[in-house]
Amino acid sequence: MAEINIVKTDSRGRVTLPAPFRSEPLFEYVIEGDQITLYPVRTVRKYPDMSDLPAEKLPAGWVKQEEEVNKDTRKGISARTPTEALKAMKK
């Protein structure tokens, strides 16, 4: 039988997890009626294997437009404000 423990929320509605789970960065949850069940997620890959799906043929105009948009290979700018971003772009 599963061990059942009660966890109390603080004044802001936060829950302190038991020690073995405090280092887990990500949880998946399931709500069943009045209970919530947390599961630690050990992988970020949540997508099913879609290798067996047929490839979709896109119109040539659409493919050309996407290639033009996706050719942008400029390095991203990390800035706290729009002004800092503009200064970084001028450098």
SS element count, helices: 2
Helix content: 10-25%
Strand order across the largest sheet: 1-2
Q: Report the span from N to C terminus.
A: 63 Å
Low-confidence regions:
none
Which term fits the overall shape? flat
User: What is the strand tally?
Assistant: 2
Strand content: 5-15%
The largest pleated sheet is described as: 2 strands, antiparallel
Along the chain, the helix and strand elements come as EEHH
Mean pLDDT across residues: 82
What's the multimeric state?
Answer: single chain
Walk me through this protein's architecture:
By secondary structure, the chain is α+β, with helices and mostly antiparallel strands. The protein has a domain at 1-44. The chain is built from two helices and two strands; from the N terminus they run ββαα. The protein has a two-stranded antiparallel ribbon.
Helix and strand layout, with pairings?
Blueprint: E1 27-32, E2 35-40, H1 60-70, H2 82-90
Summarize the structure.
It is built from 2 helices and 2 strands; from the N terminus they run ββαα. By secondary structure, it is an alpha+beta fold.
Record keyword descriptors for this entry.
91 residues, alpha+beta, 13% strand, flat
